[in-house]
Amino acid sequence: MAYSPYPLLERALLSPDADEKCGLTDELYAAVHNTELSAAGAAAPLDFRSAGRPQKPLLVAPAQVTPRKMNTQEGYAAMLHAICHIEFNAVNLALDAAYRFRNLPQAFTQDWIRVAKEEVYHFRLMRARLRHFGFDYGDFEAHGHLWDMAYKTAFDPLLRMALVPRVLEARGLDVTPAIRAKVAQRGDTETCDVLDIIYRDEVGHVRIGNHWYRHLCEQRGLAPEALFRTLIARYDMFIFRGYVNIEARERAGFSRFEMEMLEDFEKSMKAAR
Ligand SMILES: [Fe+2]
């Protein structure tokens, strides 16, 4: 009999406890892997402002996150905490894509549950590094930027694929090499190993986002490149600010042609402001 993943997806998504959420996600992946899925009889997805998260970390506006110097033990831990927080949010984002967007091929649901399982793995690895330095998830302030974009795109999978994996998650590919270099400079090889795993897997996650973005555009008869430029402008987002990792983005399914077009487009937008 086909398996409905929605009750377990909902429990995992709404769980406020990080360990429980991770455990439920593992359970979910084991249940759906190589299994026929069904949405029959499932209640409609709930519309919530926030997915389940622990009371700590305290969320503040991005500009209010206290800057800390990487050369102190606490500053270094704050940087590891920021990555931990991204991974925790990435678990919720992937679960939400699988949970919310139905009427899509079941490969879509399978893909995002697999991404959620990999994000759980990243979260656990990074949390272990944070604990190694005497801190834990929740010990520093954080911001809710990633989840906010999930909320803003909750009504349309095309919008979600365009703005979350293709913009926010792809940004991770741009910034990880510089973070890794700083971590290597400190001689923290264990954290370097974790960053390498995260980096490798994130290429795959952005690739999945690209695949489904193109699939949805094709289904609706929309031109993917032109639509993406429109969305970037309308949602006030950007790709080209600081270093852009063209090599990793190409492996994640962006074409060089599209990247060049986007760079020109953003330059003209900036000039017009
Ligand atoms: Fe991740």
TrEMBL record:
Domain of life, source organism: Bacteria
Protein name: Uncharacterized protein conserved in bacteria
Lineage: Bacteria, Pseudomonadati, Pseudomonadota, Betaproteobacteria, Neisseriales
